[in-house]
Fold:
Amino acid sequence: MWRFPIPGVTLLLWILGVLGNLSTARSASQKCDEVLATPLPYSAFSGSSVLSGDYGAGYAKLNRRGGAGGWSPQDSDRYQWLQVDLRGRKQITAIATQGRYSSSDWTKQYRFLYSDTGSNWRAYRQDGTIWTFSGNWNSEKVVRHNLQYSIVARYLRFIPLEWSEEGRVGLRVEVYGCAYWSDMISFDGQGVMSYRFRAKKMRILKDLISLKFKTTKGDGILLHGEGQQGDYISLELQRAKLWLQINLGSNQYGSIQGHTAVSSGSLLDDDHWHSVVIQRYRRSVNFTLDQHIHSFRTNGEFDHLDLDYEISFGGMAVSSKPSSGGRENFVGCMEGIVYNGDNITSLVRRKKLDTSSFRNLTFSCAESHMFPVFFNATSFVLLPGRSDADTMSVSLMFRTWNPNGLLLFSPLVYGGVEISLMDGKVTVHIYVSQKQSTRVDISSGSGLNDGQWHSVHFLALESFAMLTINGDEMSSVRAALPIMIRTGGSYYFGGYFPRTNLSPTQRSFQGCMQLIHVDEQLVDLQAVEKGSLGTFENVSLDMCAIIDRCVPNHCEHGGRCSQTWNSFSCACEGTGYTGATCHTSVYEQSCEEYKHLGRTSDTYWIDPDGSGPLEPFKVNCIMTEDKVWTTVANDLPAQSPVSAELEAATVLDLNYSMSTEQINAITSSAEHCEQYLAYACRMSRLLNTPAEGPPFTWWLGRGNEKHTYWGGSGPGVQKCACGIERNCTEPSHYCNCDADQRQWREDSGILMYKDHLPVRQVVVGDVRRSGSEARLTVGPLRCQGDRNYWNAASFNTPASYLHFPTFSGETSADISFYFKTSSTYGVFLENLGNTDFIRLELKSPTTVSFSFDVGNGPVELTVNSAGPLNDDQWHRVEAERNVKEAVLQLDGRHREVRLAPPQGHTRLQLFSQLFVGASGGQRGFLGCIRSLKMNGVTLDLEGRAEVTPGVKPGCSGHCSSYGMHCQNGGKCLEKYNGYSCDCSLTAFDGPFCTEDVGGYFETGTVVRYDLMSDSGASSLREGRGSLSPLTAEANLTQEELTFSFSTSNSPSVLIYVSSRTQDYLAVVLRHNGTLQIRYNLGGLREPFTISLDQRNMANGQPHSVNISRQDRVIHLQLDHYPSVSYILPEASDTEFNLVKTIFLGKVFETGQIDPVIIEKYNTPGFMGCLSRVQFNRIAPLKAALRSGISSTASVQGVLVESNCGASPLTISPMSAAFDPWHPESAGAQFPFNEERVGRDGLNRDSAIIGGIIAVVIFTILCTLVFLVRHMFRHKGSYHTNEAKGAESADCADAAIIVNDPAFTETIEESKKEWFI
Structure:
């Protein structure tokens, strides 16, 4: 049987109850579809004008043929309207239109307005704009629109915007809905309703509060409740925005702050009804204003709202704390107030609540005195005033989003007066044209384009002018006038378009005005509407259609929204996101992705969920040859002493540089995570093993779960690493520290169960005894791999696809993925709705398409690549659609942007499953899709592919796309999840073979690399098979030598390549620090030398050398200078025969050696740095420094690893086709058969005889050296770094032979031996 905890049952029952209420509401809404207009009498319909009696508004009923079959106005223009009085407030859910019966008159587009009072009209809005409804295209077809949200109103208006070209405006209408009734209460700013609780104190776990309000005042408290412990809930208007403030409790120390404040809406002082619903369960809150839901969690750690005595509506109760005062009461109307199931307005009507603070309690809402005028960019209102007067007085109220606009222009007898909004300030320009033209300027205010109502009063009297903003007389601005003005009698509000000699700096205004006064008299704007006063053009009277395009804020991730009248924009600087709505992250999702962009180890910002809610954060990325580690450090120093506390245990908290959610994002996507944990102890027990009771020490990990295993062990095993390996100090215990010894012991190891990581807290319990000491070390969290980045699926047939739940991206959607294919077309993904859809596809070998429909018709974006996309390499597709624009980007280079229409549907509504690969008969995709991320969520392609026929999890072949990151000859190796660079055949290290490997040579240090072992020589002589290029001799017709060095000493031998013949290659520094290259390939009396006399290279600076030869042509490049070519003489051979040994720093060789090298350059030896040394595919210095590399390299003397400060390599590595160690590519001739002789003319028998002679001579010389050393011994000591085995050898050369069994002597006809 399933068992649920009590809170879980409560939550489940509450959710079921809410769902039941919503279901009931939805059922009721579905029934709210009654015909409302047809039953009305003729007198309920009215119009702006009537063509004739038979075209009266009363005939404008759907499907009726009375009169002329519908309504038609006298003039067909945008000032006409058809009005319906429903004879009471109704809930309206749908509207329908029809043309005039059997005519050429119909309305193609219209707007829909509604009102409670027949004034102060509100336009129906949808998707953030004043909605334009599509109408009719003939006289008979009925076009019905179900409203996106229901409205409540008594009066309705239909405003024709476009009509039949063949006829005129013609209209028949119907309205659908149902009856509406609600208790209504009027608040005058004095009265406050208090709802007393049944108990003195209420401890509330969940709340459900709803109400509707309307007001013309932007500030006021709608509800308030508080408790003695500091808890409170408050709903308040501030500057026409609605703020919900809630505090479930703060602790007495202040470390837990429970205050939470959230705002919603704006421009709520418009005298229209607004609906509010507050749902709270524990700390989770849904705050809904006019269908916009804001979900959040309260701050702090408490779940209950503790209130005392009462909760008040319309203001703060008298019993509230004085400290809470200073806030204004609500002025306006409320209806439908429900608090946790109690209908407050009904209780007031039944006199069940205290309303004694009301002077005159009324259950109706007074009619508004607002009569706003709405201006667009082509509007104006011309009003008359006194002419030839010496006083000018004008005042008005305005609201706008635009920083600039013309409020008023009035021509004077001599000049004119302009009142404009400029950069958010009100500026007055007084033009004086009498005698000499002058201009007087006055300005006041700032930031007045904030959408709020602001008042302006301008007064010009006798010789001065005064400007007052928002009624603040103290900040009025005065200016002296050069002459007394004489009014012209005409006042243009909102626009001035005549072309005259005197023109204002601003021509038009977009916004609203009201309470216009001319000559101290309030203008009757209703008379203006009727045409009896003044004139107007392109204005909307008795309505203010201002829209706050920043509420709700479409700028995501903290982007700052700013707006003008027609649009909004987002400032994304400093957010870590980009795009029109700050939706797309500018950072990569993981260290793995940075590596595949060619980045090296460093600190990077990552954003694991892309456009999701998780903020970007910094991590350390460590790129190794085969892995990428993400590390997150904590603030606990290594070997932190654990001090005894007064409590029973000592608690050590660990803080990380990021939030819990951010760390969880790393661990959940990683393939492996680990964390080092060490406990050093002296008489301080750890886990109390074997378990005779609870452990003394434990740690808390992810989710604050308690764990009693230690580093090196695993979950459920209360042991340390020594207990697992059975090597503890005391075998009877499973931890070294549990032996409770006086000596310092340690238990350490790696925690590797990533679902428990990171370590958040360690509780140490045994440090209070006398003599007990402990030190704790918790290493950084280290995670490797990114399962999201490599999550891939292979689609093997055109009909194969994967399906996922419906994609949810109504107002903002982004999709990104990698693909590779050899096919020419195919659908990547598709999701459908009724008419809406979204699709991404490969349309041709060079074209990717992104198409969608949000209700405005299909839109398609395409990008074309310069090369084919079906090249079986990875390509990245990024698509985004938001309310501002749609963007498609391919491989980060090719991009197309399509702006959204200024008005239209913005919500993408889908219902089918999301299909990846193919759907609905579309052409299926053949190939691989990887790292498919939609709105920050990575889809598990591999998991779904494992259970789907025709689709395989994973995808191979990453080197074709990322192999170019392996540099300097590194080889790309395929991995299941990615690739790695094999640097073994290069002189470099690192994840991309770009890190120099070098060493510092002390004087006399020698690095020796032998190219052939005894076994190799034996195999060579017997002709068995081919040999590894790292151990085989060869005859070379081409070779390449690259290295870098830095030194301040000369002369010296940098590199010497010997052979079993007289052939050699040497690079030396001469006494003056210049470089010399010596080639001896035979055929010449003296070696071929290249001497570079132009500069001293022993200057302590790093230098790079590249020497390459092909047959007789030698190319030499130094540092960044151009390459220089040299030609070997015709007499010279072109083969470098039997390459034997590479020496670095000094020559330590037996056999034929150029005496010039020995005499001039070899002593005392090279002192300095050598790095990235590579001879063809051999890296001798790297082999000597890397103990893990099996090679024949050896070191004599002191060699310390260093990169020598070498500059980046600029010389291109050897091409794959040029491989001297592979005869099929380079023409090198490999080993000889038994009959073949060397170029010195010796056959194999001669070689054997020579070998015997060499052994005899070698023995004699060793004996002589031993005697000389014995005779000249003296007291003292010395230090040597000779290899092991030297102490048992008779001489230095013998030591080399003892240490290096691969060492073989060179056999020559004229034998000479040098001992250096």
Summary: The radius of gyration is 45 Å.
